[in-house]
Each structure stands twice: as C-alpha cells, then as structure tokens.
Amino acid sequence: MTDHTSSVRGIAPLYLAGLTTAVGAHGVASVLGSETDDIGMSLLGLGVVLALYDLAEVVLKPIFGALSDRIGTKPVIVGGLLAFVVASAIAFLAPTPLVIALARLGQGAAASAFSPAASASVARLAGKQRLGRYFGRYGAWKSLGYVLGPLAGILLTQAFGIEAVYALLAVLAALAAVWVIVSLPAIAPLPKRRTTLADLVRQTTERGFLIPTLVLATSTGVLGVAVGFLPLLATRLGLPAVVGAIAVGILALASTLLQPVVGRLRDRGRISTRVGSGAGLAVAALGLALLAIAPNAVSLFAAALAFGVMTGTVTPLAFAHLADSTPEQHLGRTMGNAELGRELGDAGGPLLVGAVATAWALPAALGVLAGATLASAAVGWGALRPARAEDGSA
Question: Which of 82, 101, 193, 381 could form a cystine bridge with 278, CB 3.0-4.6 A?
Fold first, then answer.
C-alpha cells in the first residue's frame, strides 16, 4: 500500500475521470432535447439515443470491472478514457443523428471501462482507514459534473452549437487520460484463485454485497426520478422552467458538499453505513411524500435538498462499505457489479414512477416510490453490519 502523500497524488486524476463521465452523461442529455429538430432527430430517436449510454453501462460495467482485476486498473482506465476521446471526436466532426447515436453508445461503453476500474483504484490506493474520505471526494467530483454538465452543455450549444459539447468532452477525457498515465501508480493485479459462475453468484448474493448495492440502487432510482420529474413538477405548478433546473442544481450541490464530510465522519467512526444509509433514504422518502401530498414551490426545493442529502450520505458510505468488505483481488468485479445495480436503479425508478403515474396519478406514483424507498431504508437498517465483521461478510 502506498503512503498517504502518494495516495493523494495517485487518486487525484481519478476525480477528473469521474467528472468526465458525469459531464458526458448529463451534459449531452441536457442539450439533445433542445437540438432534436435542428439535427433531424425524432422524439423516438431521442429516447433511443439517451438510453444507449445507460444500456452500454448495464451490459459492460461488470465485464470491465472483472477485466481490471485480471490485468490491473490503470490500463483499463486509460483505454476507457481514450475510447471516450474517440467517441466524442467522431460526434464533433459529424453530428448527424446516426453518428450521435454511435457516439453515445461509444461514450457509454468507454465509461463502463474506466468507471468501475477508477472505483477499484480509489479503494486500493486509499487503504482501509481512508475509504470514506476518498470515496466521498470521488463522489463529490462526479456530483459536480452533474451540475456543470447541463450548464456547460446548454451554454456551449447556444454559443457554438452542439459540436462544442463534444469538443469539451474530448478535451476533458484526453486531459484525464494524460494525467492518469503520468500520476496514477501502476496497481498490479493481485493473485487469486480461479473463479466460477457459482462463485460469482455466491458473491453477488452475500449480504455484504447485496444490501449496500440495494441501498445504492434505491438512491440512484430516487435521483433519476428527481432529475427527470422535478422540472416537470415545476412546470405543472405554473413556475418558470428555470425553477426546475435550479431545484436539480440544489440537489447536486448538496450532494457535492456533503459527500466528503460524510466520508470523513465514516472513517472516524462517527457514522456507520447502517445509520447513515437508513437515515439518508428515510429523508428522501420524506421528500417524496411531501411532493406527493403538498406539491408547491417550497416543497419542490425542500424535496430537492432532501434528495441531495440522501445522495451525499448514501453514496460514499455504501461504496466504502463495499470496498471494505471485498478482498482486494476482487475489487474491480465488485465495483462493476455494484455499478450495474446503480444503473438498474437509475432506470427502474423513473420507469416505476412513469408507469404508476400513467395508470393512476403522479402524486400516487411519488407515494409508491416513497414507500419503496422507506422499505429499502428499513432493509438496510436491519441487515447492514460493520464491513469487516463476520470475517468480511457484512
């Protein structure tokens, strides 16, 4: 394990990698809708293009996570970032609907490579005593990307066209790749015994993996609903469209500021994954219930803040817990599978709310999600244990 100073120097490039994937996911999505007519894309085509990024991540993250265990995390991170540069550059040169769709798929595939490998690298370099602190910082930079991505995307598109967004993404990914090559230590893969499909099933059904991943998936599901439905609620309340964007910005800002603080508290033993995750999800459930019962401008911003508190609390605690309860030789696989759980939550939350809202009403849909979130909080509260208790099974 490296000393503290070299760990900081090695982890820092990963913050830019996390920022890049967040800006890529949300920056492009924020502008494609407004540019649909200009680039000749149908609404169905828009939906397909937006889904391609997440589809690639769902399929490929576990694969690239396992690959990083086999060959080391650094080549997977660098390869993913360079692939992200290529995908972005293609869309910059020819932003037609087909090319944009291929670029979106390529960016998602590239992010699938460097995202779980970066999480595994954070865990390896931080050491068991500083997992919360560094996962908090890594998550904060990703949350910052969720704020800056839409803002930068909209401003660049209005000033220079959609090509400028892809130029920015190509530059960010290239800078991150160079910084990783120069500063990230070569983290050698650890020897491990041959694993079978039965071993993988056993690992992904153990409490130490399943419960933190369930908590992460729930929080990401609520986050996906917040990003998609807060602007819709603002519009339905007769508020200016910018109000919804401000609410989402408050959510992301709260998460950005809170994650490093929660991570440090976790490392000092001041907050546990069980208490923090349960409380964070309960706060989010309260925010959803508030929106369902009394939708107005005040409850909109209160709920956004509650969702930011949830994200800022659950994310560093759950990832640190996963890293702490996983043997180092399997960190990439664990992080890839956990990221898969998050992506399923990201898709499942909006789908659940959309389906219930269509069949019933939006307040009822938010109430159903509030109940599911509270149930997940109860499961986490009852089932989570200290990560290294019971010989590493939580």
Answer: 381
